[in-house]
Fold this protein.
Amino acid sequence: MGIRDGKRGDPGAQPEMVLSFFRRTLPFSGLESRSLEMLASHARIDFLPSGSRFLIQGESEVEALYLVQKGGVRLYAKDETGRETLVDFRGEGGAVGGMALVQGGRARLSAETVEDTFFIKVPKETFLSIVEKHPQVARFYAKAFADEYTALVFEELKERSGALPEPGALYLMGSRVGQIMHGPPVDIPMGATIQQAAQLMERNRVGSVLVADPSGEHLGIVTDKDLRKTIAVGMPPEAPVEIIMSSPLGTVDERVTCFDALMTMMNRELHHLAVTRDGRVAGMITAHDIVVMQGKSPMALFREIMAQREIEGLYDHSHRTPQVIRALVEEGAKAGHITSMITVINDCLLGQVIKLLLKSLGPPPVAFCWMMMGSEGRREQTFKTDQDNAIIIRDVEDPVIARAAGVYFEAFTTRVIEHLVKAGFPPCPGGIMASNSKWRLTLSQWKETFERWILKPEPEEVMHAAIFFDFRAGPGQSAFAEELKRHLLPLIQRQEVFQRYLAANCLQARPPLSFFRGFIVEKNGEHKNKLDLKERGIAPIADFARVLALRLGIAETNTLARLEAVGEDGVVSRDLVSEVGEAYEFLMQLRLVHQLAQWERGEEPHNHVAPDILSELEKRTLKEAFHVIGRIQSFLKDLYKLNIA
């Protein structure tokens, strides 16, 4: 199936390339030179054309480790009925077949190249000799097996969520930007006229041109939309093109997923991105390209929100978010991606509400920053998330301006909250909203409030205030929130008593597992025989990530990003951090699929799940997730010497 003739198949013809590949590829990069040289001498370079099925689940004997040198591989899982579904993608440096070699047996998943692909193949005997000599290699592929196992669990969750995408569709989560980009890009030199840019776009039938300086560096982009604006304002066609270009040029690497490219476009409000290969622009991708490949597009909802000119027109948009979630779940997106997308859409809606309200009320007397907290601050919203927000107002010495600001922001925040409620965001039951005068403070007042919590902590107050430590900037002067964070982080790091209170708060919700690892469900009430995924599973992990991030002075608020940063610091082992991250993703995925099903049945979404409805694989994974929570709680007890039973 592959070719081994000449320079392609013989690593001896390209020894430095093969050795260099192993030196930069995990887990081999950590081996000593002698082992690396032995690997390189036994490895073979192989080539498979696009669409080659080289492993079949349960049938193929795995005789070598396949390392992707260039190209890509999709992995498929087959269920009892014989139907296959996409579960993972391996790009450059990715490995296929490792765990089958370590544990013995046949291929665990089917593998197929998605483009012309070059492999570096390590024969079974060579690979096993390395595993025997270096146990860390075996551990690495055991982790890879855990990832594949997790992928199968997520696949079951996706199955339970309903319909699947049409056969042959390009998947938003697995497809890379390089697969759908248009190229090469069309350049126009700096100093050329607007008319020449229009002629060049027409001649090449493209929607954009890149403006380049004499050295060939791209300074910006001119799109067909820019040309329409030029005509609308009566700008002369002989004006230089750099006057209307957008700069700097938005770029994305060709290996990035289409989902991440879409997130970049939405966050930066861009329609075009230049695609780079090895640091140089190789092509272009547009929002339309992704819309076409995806079908139900979050970008369409995003653009509709941005186009609204009346606040009332925004009320129905949040009710369409579940449709976006449905499309993402169908395409195999994991919880971290889905909640990120929900956050971008909700941030967009909030920003448009505030923008239109400011236009209606007139500019405020002083600058402000809207502050998002809780799940909003962590960028982890799901369905019908309660509001948790506040506002930072610039300090002013003039008492007249201060009074005017007080009157203005009381009316402003009250109206923002009312509009958000009408748009589908329930008010916070605890009143943690900017419309509450307690949470409508100047920057100096916020510093004093946080200092009181940190320097003189009271257990009850700290428990309720923990939500505030997940804050991030919303619309307005983000510098206010950034200054507040810079002020607080060093203070928290010095106050271990406060950290101990936060850590103790993490231990309040015990994992709902019996001594024999059965589920402990609600005994009565509305949620009888069910588990609370949020309070008993998701919240303890978010609490764990928060306390360690604050201990280390990490400004990030997202739970998965906090865990990653904590793992890099070394205070927690990377293995435990990885397990916690996987547990969190699974619990969030289970919660999203559960709430999606409720929404589609017309029910009010909640966080309580009956274990009886889960598959055996889901139950087992849920128990493992709760077991991980027990481990992190034991870790915090030891770290902070908390003698809590």
